[in-house]
Amino acid sequence: MKQFYLPTRIITGCGCCAELGTQASALGRRALLVCGARSLRASGRLDRALSLLQAAGVTTTVHDAISAEPTLDRVQEGLDRARAEQVEVVIGIGGGSAIDAAKAIAGLYTHPGTVREYFGPRTVSGGGLPWIAVPTTAGTGAEVTKNAVLISPEHDVKTSLRHDGWFASVALVDPELTLDTPPQITAASGCDALTQAIEAYTSIGAMPTTDALAIEAIARIGRSLERAWRDGQDLEARADMLYGSMLAGMAFSNARLGGVHGMAHPLGYRYGAPHGAICGLLLPYTMAYNVAYATHKYAQVARLLGVDTNGMDERTAAERAVERARELVVGVGLPTRLSTFGVRREDLAMIAQQSLPSSSLKHNPRPLAAHDVEAILSAAL
Predict the structure, then answer these.
(1) Which residues contact 252 (CB under 8 A, 6 or more apart)?
(2) Which domains, and CATH codes, for the chain?
(3) Which band of pLDDT confidence, cut at 50, 70 and 90, is reported for residue 246?
């Protein structure tokens, strides 16, 4: 038996971020707004968000200390501020890191102890405060997922906290907010979204509901990733990417992911490499490993990515999906070798061991032992 669960109210469309005040005031009158340290303020969007909240009668405290990889300390600071101000709703505006930080702060607000303790003896036991997600990049799909990816240097790990009660109450998914995303972030986050869609589609946890979402996500991202990268003001391409990312998030939050994400977390943590760039790099190598176990679905992926498979048998079409994934990564200027990020051959066994506990590996269509992970990493080196 498989179950699909998504309790989030999703509001989409250009300009829908203007609903922020209305949606927030329905959930509470005191808010913590979580965002990154620079870009939201520099773009003027933070001031606009605060104006919308003020007009709706919401008193807002800003926590703008979130970096590209949210650490336990920064999340703890936000949690302490939320408790001190007795906030009633949390708002995350930004990329996946800001949204994951908001998710963790909201989720742990009603839990005893510190954030750090939930990487140790304590377990997440339920939901917390209502919270609103407003993504400004197309990549993680964090606005519709229940997990928050955090870094703990003390535990020497990058991992997720999750609970069914951690889904956002509301997601405002506005393509206009992504128009000024720099090309390199468009490329990396877009490859993350593509990887999530393909891994959800081929996960052993996939079901008809998640397949439908993943198929639409792959089609949108496949036709628009390079367009959005070349011309950031192409609103149609930006909308495809943002909605594709959202649909992929809806799919993988229920079907789970695969080998790429199992390997990407220790690599990103160890070498400071952008998560999406690592995902894009590893995707074709992992697909090549999986191709005999997901032939039918990979053949469909090839068609969704624009490959003319007429006259091909399924295995050939599936192998073309691997090639097309590699072409997309190269086409948006991302690295194709792990050595670019400083990974050395003598590191591979360690990375493989650190990948094994990941639940993502357990949902890969082809079983992955340590030597299999090491072989994929070696091919990608």
Answers:
(1) 141, 145, 196, 197, 199, 200, 203, 210, 214
(2) 9-178 (3.40.50.1970), 183-380 (1.20.1090.10)
(3) very high
